[in-house]
Every structure is written in structure tokens, then in C-alpha cells.
Amino acid sequence: MTSSRSELFTDKEYELLKTEVLKAQKFAYCPYSNFKVGCALLTSDDKIFTGCNVENAAYPAGICAERTAITKAVSEGYRTFKAIAVITDSTNCSSPCGVCRQFIREFAGYNDDEKDKEKKLQLPVIMFNNTADKSLVATIDALLPHSFGPEDLAL
Ligand SMILES: O=c1ccn([C@H]2C[C@H](O)[C@@H](CO)O2)c(=O)[nH]1
Ligand SMILES: [Zn+2]
């Protein structure tokens, strides 16, 4: 775990993701938890997809911001990513829940044009605190070590 800057993305990308998570968080629909979460996903070809948590009166039907953003991207044909950023209402830099870690991991394997083993599962997850003046960065491999993925199915 490192703080804010990383060799995995540029300062410009970091600033862009920060702006986008703050915008996305405003759309959070969370009348039950009152815990607003925003997510921004930077694709390999520099497109941004955002998401927020969307809760439901039937509580377990709600979805996290991370899965909203990833589902938006994948459903529009984007599967390879440079970075994912999350902001919550916590003064800590909260990290994605277990379900979201697994969901992120699915799309953090080899990029279609990237066969470099070193880069496998190195997708950076940027975790901002509520004011976005602090962040932690960890790769998905660090957040979900020894993970299960599509390769295990050996299809
Ligand atoms: O990383 C996280 C953690 C929590 N939540 C949402 C789920 C629920 O709507 C609310 C409280 O857990 O925050 C996210 O969207 N992402
Ligand atoms: Zn989650």
C-alpha cells in the first residue's frame, strides 16, 4: 500500500480520477445508509466511466459504486482499464468490499494487447477519503491476494 502517487498512473490521470469520483459521489442514492460512494474508472484508451452506490428498499438488492461503474463500462464494450478510483464519506480511505474486489479482479487480468506477466493484476485502486485530500493506492492483487479468476476455469 502506497499513498497517493504511483508509477502506475500519471499525476494528470490521478487528478482526473479525483475530479470524476467527486462528481459521481453526488449522484449516490443511499437513503438507507446515508453513505455516499463515488467511483471512476479510467479505460485503457482514456475513457472515463463513473458510478455511485444505488440502494434499494429491499436492502440486499443495492449495488456498490464500483460495480455500477464497471458494469457501465463493460456493457458498453470497455474491458481493459488503467485505474479505478473510489471515494466514500469516511475520513479514512475506505477500501472496496469483498464482492467489489472480486468484480474488479475479473477485469484486471491481461489486457487484450498486454501480455506482460508483470502487469497482470496490477490494476491500481485509488481510495480517497471524504475530502479527497488523502488517498491510498493498492493494486487489486494486494487487495485480493491469491484470487480466483477466469484463468482458473481453464475454458
Ligand atoms: O466500497 C464501497 C463500500 C460501500 N459501498 C456502499 C454500499 C452501501 O450502499 C453503502 C454502505 O455500505 O456504501 C460502496 O458503494 N462501495
Ligand atoms: Zn462493494
Shape: globular
- From the helix content, strand content and strand pairing, which structural class follows? alpha+beta
Distance between the termini: 33 Å
Strand order of the largest sheet: 1-6-5-4-2-3
Summarize the main sheet.
Answer: 6 strands, mixed
Bound ligands, each once:
2'-deoxyuridine, zinc ion
Mean pLDDT: 93
By DSSP (H or I, 4+ residues per run), the number of helices equals 5
Q: What percent of residues adopt helix (DSSP H or I)?
A: 25-40%
**Rg from Cα:** 15 Å
The SSE order reads EHEEHEHEEHH
Structural description of this entry:
Residues 12-151 form the CMP/dCMP-type deaminase domain. Pfam families: dCMP_cyt_deam_1. It catalyses: 2'-deoxycytidine + H2O + H(+) = 2'-deoxyuridine + NH4(+); cytidine + H2O + H(+) = uridine + NH4(+). The chain has helices at 11-25, 65-74, 98-106, 140-143, 150-153, and strands spanning 2-3, 38-43, 48-52, 81-87, 124-128, 135-139. The radius of gyration is 15 Å and the shape is globular. Strands 1-6-5-4-2-3 form a 6-stranded mixed sheet. β5 and β6 form a beta hairpin. The chain is of the alpha+beta class. The protein is 27% helix and 19% strand. The chain starts with a strand and ends with a helix. It contains 5 helices and 6 strands. It binds 2'-deoxyuridine and zinc ion (ZN).
